Amino acid sequence: MNAPFLNLTELPAALSGGLNALLGGRFSTSLPDREQHGRGESYHAMMPPQAVCRVQSTEEVAAIVRLCAEHRVPITPFGAGTSLEGHVTAPHGGICIDLGGMNRILTVRPEDLDVTIEPGVTRQQLNAFLRDQGLFFPVDPGAECTIGGMAATRASGTNAVRYGTMRENVISVTAVMADGTIVRTAGRARKSSAGYDLTRLLVGSEGTLGIITELTIRLYGIPEAVSAATCTFPDVASAVSTVVTAIQCGIPVARAEFLDGRTMKAINRHFKADFAETPTLFFEFHGTKAGVAEQAQQVEEIAKSLNGTNFQWASGQEELNRLWHVRHNVHYAVQGMRPGARVWGTDVCVPLSQLTELMRSTHADTQDASFYVTMVGHVGDGNFHVGLIIDPDNPAEMAEATAINDRLVKRAIALEGTATGEHGVGTGKRKFMLLEHGTGVGIMRTIKQALDPLGILNPGKVLPDD
Amino acid sequence: MNAPFLNLTELPAALSGGLNALLGGRFSTSLPDREQHGRGESYHAMMPPQAVCRVQSTEEVAAIVRLCAEHRVPITPFGAGTSLEGHVTAPHGGICIDLGGMNRILTVRPEDLDVTIEPGVTRQQLNAFLRDQGLFFPVDPGAECTIGGMAATRASGTNAVRYGTMRENVISVTAVMADGTIVRTAGRARKSSAGYDLTRLLVGSEGTLGIITELTIRLYGIPEAVSAATCTFPDVASAVSTVVTAIQCGIPVARAEFLDGRTMKAINRHFKADFAETPTLFFEFHGTKAGVAEQAQQVEEIAKSLNGTNFQWASGQEELNRLWHVRHNVHYAVQGMRPGARVWGTDVCVPLSQLTELMRSTHADTQDASFYVTMVGHVGDGNFHVGLIIDPDNPAEMAEATAINDRLVKRAIALEGTATGEHGVGTGKRKFMLLEHGTGVGIMRTIKQALDPLGILNPGKVLPDD
Fold first, then answer.
1. Which of B291, B383, B413 sits opposite A191 (nearest CB)?
2. What is the pLDDT of residue A6?
3. Which chain B residues contact residue A349 at CB under 8 A?
4. CA nearest B142: which of B162, B156, B161?
5. Residue in A113, A158, A192 to test binding to B, most B beta-carbons within 10 Å
6. Is residue A286 part of a domain?
7. Into how many domains does chain B fold?
């Protein structure tokens, strides 16, 4: 799947001219623009595109794609640049299509519990807009990412155990395909058996099959009652077991987040807080008043039976908001433990029955690393992140981090898990695709080749080299 | 997408010889076998294959596919033959692969809430097996269909509003692709961002992209409390509005089924029952005891405000079972209204906000038809079925039924709905694919051509002719 074109160092003049004519001041070749669009938030090295196109409509994206197809020039889509696996880097050069400016909320339909938006709308922007109508969109990666980017990477977050991921919450997308064709993948019915599921083919394809330019997504009524609690544990295993047991008992927890002692320490520093620096769970319960109380009581009993102590309620909306603000910003808190460092966040996800032992042993394995290591998890899903706080310019640290991640991913895949629960493949996890998918990689390549025969859509991502 | 091979009238001798050597007595060319495999349960004319292969393993399916690829002979997969849209007919001839004998339940994992099964396992077989473990699989089309067939058609049923369809409940499949490659589409993690979603590409592809030979599906704990109720209404609109309002209020009803007066009449005859012959809702609530009582009370209030009367509880497990047995067998009850007739079941699904008016007007439009017409709906999803009780050999009735269905589907698509909520496309709904999907049909064709270049997998289904 090597790109069949030149690894560009400059754009063909005819292409630049065409893009300039189309976009005017929204076409940029300035170095700061290129560099700003050449990396995400993780350890991956910057690889800037030759130019940045700030787009305003589906038709504009289609026109750009047709021009790039004509010149066989790579295209890398860009939302907010919060990617953790190098999705927005341009390893083969070419142009970046920045969809961040397409951020209009087009139609909210409370009676259908859905909304149609442009891809640059961010999750906090959307939820702020919806709040007055008693509605919310639950999928919540930590970063203030765009919803288009979340769909492209099949993202999730803290609520997935109850509300699902982008896979379950995207109803339909409009996308521009590699030849400039505009497709709307589905209507707005909640279910359909009408042909191949193009929506879910594009969700998670990371801009390699098409560029998402509009989305219709599910909304939910803000629950009548929301309560949150924290609980501390003597060790990783007892904390994780508490959540696994609660899920296995069918308690519909909305959020069940694990944070290890080192993460709590980073949080205390970053937020000037005074949490106990020991394995901790953050819970949230959604439902009716009676339902929430019932759920919380059941979970508290499970926690106590597993040596949980200090089960504390978040009292009031302000404390609740603060709790989840802290959780959503763990990445930055942890990064703050070492100025100038980057966080390499691992992302395996395994069947629940395997989670406690994998997290326990991973925690033990990484405590002697030469750099700070943290661990957090959306443990209700079987998904957790080891945070490796490294200097990406230090080859020894990079080698050590690579080895930790390799070991972890291989163990997760051996347990019928996945290399990536929610961050995506990008450039960072391509090397595990064959191990995880076997003959499936050949099928993915066939699909990629059929839908993007020139290989211009986000080359160097998702699929390993032949 | 016309098949590039002969429309077979007999199999090549070398292929017959090879299949006979492979399968022995499980390879059959007898006319009763061929006819039994040549039609489903609906109005579509029988089109028998030239031979039937009763398979026992994935490897056997792969060997058959390789032989058929060599001879360019079409393959039609077959589960229980309960298809409603001609999926199991063989319009281009060829062989039928009958997966009904692959019906082993391989591994139940209560701690992961999943199970791995062969595709011929039926939903009632599975639930009978699981009951002792306190688990169940919720997706429940009316018929005693195979779970492989349900995955292939992206089926759903009465529980989808709460538990989702096959789209949400298949974790991974093993499939044989058109060249005989065996692929397992995913591990068992509850979520993954690792590459293209091959699971959901195969779910709903109706055997045209690959043949499903094993599935891992989600299970749920049997709820602590289950209660059911019926309620009657003066007209279609008030009944449907009751459900729409309940869903919009976020009440997590497990089942909300609409049945019109004529359906109730058919039920009374078939089951010797004495339901009121007026628009009726069947509800089911799942949860804790307190939660179920709370939900039911809220729904009863909504129903009363919309002129619902006679809100009655199913008391005890026996009455509850009888209620859903009646619902699941509506197809046969309705068919019984006219001996020798077939039921043409329409299957549109629309956004909830459009449902009440579409059902009201459709009900009004069809009451003067020259044959008996019924209406039932999984109204919490926006999905309903008009039952046209026709003689498929009567051209005037077929023309009348075709016109009713055409009008209904076109209106549903205009309302951003779909031609088929859960029955699939088969041969019956191909003609609506372009209207529903526009440029998406071209993308589907590209994928089909790439993954099945010889066109041997279930030709004549899903995609319209070029």
1. B383
2. 52
3. 189-192
4. B156
5. A192
6. yes
7. 1
Sheet holding B210-218, edge to edge: B105-109, B114-117, B210-218, B170-177, B182-184
Q: Which of A394, A414, A434 is the last residue of a domain?
A: A414
A216 & A230 share domain: no
Kindly give the residue spans of alpha helices, DSSP state H, lying in B190-260. 198-202, 236-248
CATH number at residue B256: 3.40.462.40
The answer, as to whether pTM is greater than 0.90, is yes
Asked if residue A216 belongs to a domain, the reply is yes
- Mean pLDDT in each 10-residue stretch from start to end of chain A (466 residues)? 56 97 98 96 94 98 98 97 96 97 98 97 97 95 94 96 96 98 98 98 98 98 92 96 91 94 97 96 91 91 95 86 93 94 96 96 93 96 97 96 97 98 98 98 98 98 92
Q: How many CA atoms lie within 13 A of B221 on its CB side?
A: 16
Identify the three-state secondary structure at position A399: helix
Set of chain A residues whose Cβ sits within 8 Å of the Cβ of B436:
187, 194-195
CA distance A61 to chain B (A): 17
A240, A353: one domain: yes
Neighbour count for residue B276 (Cβ, 10 Å): 14
Please report the pLDDT score of residue B99 as a whole number.
98
Residue A346's pLDDT is: 97
A91 domain residue, yes or no: no
Picking from A151, A138, A147, the residue whose alpha carbon sits closest to that of residue A199 is A151
Over B260-319, what HEC string results?
CHHHHHHHHHHHCCCCCCCCEEEEEEEECHHHHHHHHHHHHHHHHHCCCEEEEECCHHHH
Secondary element (H or E) of residue B389: strand B383-390
**How many Å apart are CA B125 and CA B148, to the nearest integer?**
13
Q: How many A-B residue pairs are in contact by the CB < 8 A criterion?
A: 283
Q: Is residue A231 domain-resident?
A: yes
Q: In this predicted model, what pLDDT tens digit does every residue of B178-220 receive, in sequence order?
A: 999 999 999 999 999 999 999 999 999 999 999 999 999 999 9
Contacts of B153 in chain A (CB under 8 A): 193
pLDDT given at position A1: 39
Contact yes or no for A189 and B463 at CB 8 A = no
State how far residue B8 is from chain A, nearest Cα, in angstroms.
Answer: 26
A169, A262: one domain: no
pLDDT of residue B165: 98
If asked whether residues A356 and A233 sit together in one domain, one would say yes
- What residue numbers bound the domain in which A349 lies? 225-414
Provide, as residue numbers in chain B, all residues whose Cβ is less than 8 Å from the Cβ of A168.
Answer: 164, 168
DSSP string, A267-287: HHHHHT----SS-EEEEEEEE
B294-353 pLDDT, tens digit each: 889 999 999 999 999 999 988 788 989 999 999 999 999 999 999 999 999 999 999 999
Q: How far is the alpha carbon of B153 from chain A, nearest alpha carbon, in Å?
A: 6
Does residue A343 share a domain with residue A305? Answer: yes
- For residue B427, the distance in angstroms to the closest alpha carbon of chain A comes to 12
Contacts of A187 in chain B (CB under 8 A): 351, 413, 416-418, 436
Where chain B has pLDDT below 50, the residues are 1-5
pLDDT of A3? 44
Q: What is the dihedral of CA B203, B208, B210, B211, to 10 degrees?
A: 80
Instruction: Specify whether A321 is located in the same domain as A192.
Output: no
When scoring B193, B211, B213 by the number of chain A Cβ atoms within 10 A, the one with the most, hence best to mutate, is: B193
**Do residues A288 and A142 share a domain?**
no
Across the interface, do B194 and A436 touch by the CB < 8 Å criterion? Answer: yes
**Residue A177 has what pLDDT?**
98
